[in-house]
Design goal:
The chain is mainly alpha-helical. It has helices spanning about 5-10, 25-45, 50-55, 65-75, 95-105, 120-130, 135-145, 150-155, 180-185, 195-200, 210, 220-225, 230-240, and strands at about 50, 80-85, 85-90, 135, 160-165, 175-180. The chain has 2 domains: about 5-90, Winged helix-like DNA-binding domain superfamily/Winged helix DNA-binding domain (Arc Repressor Mutant, subunit A, Orthogonal Bundle); about 120-240, Winged helix-like DNA-binding domain superfamily/Winged helix DNA-binding domain (Arc Repressor Mutant, subunit A). About 50% of the residues lie in helices and about 10% in strands. The longest helix is centred in the N-terminal third of the chain and has 18 residues, at about 25-45.
Length: about 240
């Protein structure tokens, strides 16, 4: 039995919303909760929000401990339960990425229905992620050249960004913000998990100047380039320009 199960036993009570399980012994009821939660997550194509899972097990069940037990049982499996985009989702472990790509004939960095981002698209997406909500004019000012509507359209078409609140600037232009798809694509639960911009600046790893020169944070670069060779070529181009 996992540590989570041991802690749970002390205060085990029937679920107020799961009266159909009241007849089961505590341990069997817990296993049923685990099975129901994992089944709901497994069947969903998107991360399942916490409030949905809470309805599955009822008010008196500690959902965090259920999740902890499920994750413990999956420790030796090729997939895991991850917290992403404000919910929970089954994902294959990174160690098996090459095998999966080889079996499906998918290039590295690309998934079903996804499109590899160009350097310009990746840079604009990085800027939006760190400085949202931000207008297209502000993006153009940041990069010193116009950020086209077509480029914004590519990011919107992949549901990586969406319209945010209107800016208080004259004309009240729309701003742009990242989406849950962005969080899911880059394996983030919240935007707080982005590498800290100030810390990257202090460490000399990132600055506005480096971003303008094409220096993409590792979090984004790892998902943007099709393979290590493409990323190396990109980094070489930056060094040559420097």
């Amino acid at each position: 039995m996992s540590k989570a199960s041991a802690r749970r036993k002390a205060n085990d009570q029937p679920a107020l919303l799961d009266t159909d399980l009241e007849h089961l012994p505590a341990e069997l009821r817990w296993r049923e909760w685990m099975g129901r939660v994992e089944a709901v997550i497994f069947a969903a194509s998107e991360p399942v929000p916490r409030d949905v899972l809470a309805r599955v097990v009822g008010k008196s069940c500690n959902l965090d401990l259920v999740i902890e037990d499920i994750r413990a049982e999956l420790a030796g499996r090729p997939y895991e339960l991850v917290s992403v985009a404000g919910g929970w989702q089954h994902r294959t472990k990174k160690a098996f990425a090459d095998v999966i790509r080889g079996a499906s004939g998918t290039a590295a960095g690309q998934g079903a229905g996804s499109k590899e981002l160009s350097q310009s698209e990746a840079l604009v997406l990085t800027c939006i992620a760190y400085f949202q909500p931000i207008t297209r004019a502000e993006l153009s000012s940041f990069f010193g050249k116009e950020v086209s509507r077509d480029l914004i359209g590519v990011l919107r078409a992949q549901d990586l960004i969406a319209s945010g609140p209107r800016s208080p600037q004259p004309g009240a232009p729309y701003t742009y913000v990242t989406t849950k798809t962005f969080l899911s694509q880059f394996g983030l639960d919240t935007l707080r998990q982005l590498p800290d911009f100030e810390a990257l600046e202090d460490a000399g790893l990132l600055s506005k100047e480096k971003l303008l020169a094409g220096g993409i944070p590792a979090l984004v670069a790892g998902e943007v380039f099709a393979d290590d060779e493409a990323q190396a070529d990109h980094e070489a181009e930056i060094e040559d320009e420097g």
